[in-house]
Amino acid sequence: MVYDLTSLILLVLWLAALGATVFALIHAVRQRADAFTAVDKLTKPIWLAILAGALVFLLLGIAGFGMLTSFIAIIATGVYLADVRPKIDEVQRGPRW
User: Fold this and answer.
1) What is the mean pLDDT of the chain?
2) How many whole angstroms from its chain centre is CA 96?
3) 38 has a pLDDT exceeding 70
4) Where are the transmembrane segments (predicted)?
5) pLDDT for 24 beyond 90
6) Long-range contacts (CB closer than 8 Å, 24 or more residues apart) made by 13-19
7) 48 has a pLDDT exceeding 80
8) What are the tens digits of pLDDT across the range 56-81?
9) How far is CA 21 from the centre of its chain?
10) CB contact at 8 A, 44 and 33
């Protein structure tokens, strides 16, 4: 019973990480390339490669390649969502009043 509960929790966490990574990848695809350099971040192609790699790592993690690949993917996605995305959105929208 404990094993089933642990497996269910890990599955829910993996699905959340997958959703966040897909969201981040779609967000990065939809942004202008000059917005990334305007906020002094890595270029758009580099972020697309990082997020696509994170998606592959997540898929490898569920296939049994270990938790390390999932942790790498979650960290990469978290950096994009917490640091890059807010600044890109801010520079494209302008100041809020």
Assistant:
1) 90
2) 26
3) yes
4) 48-81
5) yes
6) 14/58, 14/61, 14/62, 14/70, 17/58, 17/70, 17/73, 17/74, 17/77, 18/55, 18/58
7) yes
8) 999 988 777 778 888 999 999 999 99
9) 4
10) yes
Structure tokens at 32: 């202008």
Measure CA of the first residue to CA of the last residue in the chain; give whole Å: 53
- Minimal CA–CA distance to 19: which of 73, 96, 79, 88? 73
Q: Which two tokens stand for residue 4?
A: 């089933």
Alpha carbon distance 66, 28 (integer Å): 27
Which residue has tokens 């350099």?
A: 37
